[in-house]
């Protein structure tokens, strides 16, 4: 064969080899990049992470998630409960988020809408009730810890008048007020719980003012369903006592603070994201009780009577082993109507939609 032709053929073979090797190397690099890509998880908060309460507790869960699974997280704080949350979710998806936790009740309808538009993204909505193939709802049975904190308040009050600073007239808040009042009256049938609505989640001034108005009316203990320590600080300034919420806020009002129902979201967040990562995630409705650790009663302070400590420990053990139900009959509403008969209890569906106050509550619910 002509030497020139042989040389040309050898050059062609070498060139083809280089091209194929280059293509193989590019494919390998692309595969490695895909394998090294981290799961990205988005969190949407209704308040600032520095609120010390609700949003702070969720953010602690986010940090726990990062530590446990090594995933990348992004978050947006102080997002209003309105259409704006749709844009926030879509922005997070554009950044690569494959799982989104929306942590306030008012986001529910918007989460449902966006979930339908992005079937490959997992959406988890806190405190709501709607579900879809890629949308789940989650919460904790906070009413159990509320009941226990009511026992503390019922045995601590001297005036038999307990103030309750409440956010919005939604089932979550109403259920908590009812459970708290049932706890109060289980040990002190003469006590009353007076409700003051603020229609805020995070407004320290408004919430503190509401607490002061209750103190003016003779309350000597202030409970709350708010994200700030404002009500507890009002109690301390007036020489009264307080029951907190969301986190242990003893440092905010050490001379008033008794205890609080508190949240521990981290393990649940890690469990859900791990399931999304390994392909086992399924939409469901999670409502973890005290036995799961999602909802807890913060350590009672030295201001709590020994009698109350013993009673709380007794009932907490029964709640955890399933032998005690908070909403077991007979239960009347605050207008005297029998709502739960002897031997019966409210179902989860009834608790999730509750819109009436139990006997012992002074207040009204706008419907």
UniProtKB/TrEMBL annotation:
Residues 39-321 form the ABC transporter substrate-binding protein PnrA-like domain. Keywords: Signal. InterPro entries: ABC-Purine-Binding (IPR052910), PnrA-like (IPR003760). Transmembrane segments: none annotated. Pfam families: Bmp (PF02608). Residues 1-29 form the signal peptide. GO terms for cellular component: plasma membrane. This is Transcriptional activator protein Med. The gene is med.
């Amino acid at each position: 064969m002509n030497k020139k032709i042989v040389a040309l053929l050898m050059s062609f073979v070498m060139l083809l080899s280089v091209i194929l090797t280059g293509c193989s190397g590019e494919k390998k690099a692309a595969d490695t990049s895909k394998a090294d890509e981290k799961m990205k998880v988005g969190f949407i908060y209704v308040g600032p992470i520095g609120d010390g309460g609700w949003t702070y507790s969720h953010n602690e869960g986010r940090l726990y998630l990062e530590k446990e699974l090594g995933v990348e997280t992004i978050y947006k704080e102080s997002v209003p409960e309105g259409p704006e949350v749709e844009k926030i979710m879509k922005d997070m998806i554009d950044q690569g988020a494959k799982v989104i936790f929306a942590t306030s009740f008012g986001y529910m309808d918007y989460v449902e809408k966006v979930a339908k538009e992005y079937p490959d993204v997992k959406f988890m909505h806190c405190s709501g009730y709607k579900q879809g193939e890629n949308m789940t709802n989650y919460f904790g049975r906070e009413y159990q810890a509320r009941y226990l904190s009511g026992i503390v308040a019922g045995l601590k009050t001297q005036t038999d008048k307990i103030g309750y600073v409440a956010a919005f007239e939604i089932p979550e808040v109403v259920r908590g007020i009812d459970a708290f009042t049932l706890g109060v009256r289980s040990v002190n049938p003469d006590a009353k719980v007076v409700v003051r609505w603020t229609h805020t989640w995070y407004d320290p001034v408004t919430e503190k003012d509401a607490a002061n108005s209750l103190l003016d009316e003779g309350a000597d203990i202030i409970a709350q369903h708010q994200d700030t320590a404002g009500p507890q600080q009002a109690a301390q300034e007036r020489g009264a006592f307080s029951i907190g919420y969301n986190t242990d806020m003893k440092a905010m009002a050490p001379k008033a603070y008794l205890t609080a129902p508190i949240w521990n979201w981290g393990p649940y967040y890690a469990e859900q994201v791990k399931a999304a990562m390994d392909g086992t995630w399924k939409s469901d409705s999670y409502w973890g009780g005290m036995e799961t650790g999602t909802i807890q009663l913060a350590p009672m302070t030295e201001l709590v009577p020994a009698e109350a400590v013993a009673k709380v420990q007794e009932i907490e053990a029964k709640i955890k082993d399933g032998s005690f139900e908070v909403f077991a009959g007979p239960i009347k509403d605050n207008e005297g109507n029998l709502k739960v008969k002897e031997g019966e209890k409210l179902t989860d569906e009834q608790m999730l939609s509750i819109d009436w106050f139990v006997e012992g509550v002074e207040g009204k619910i706008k419907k």
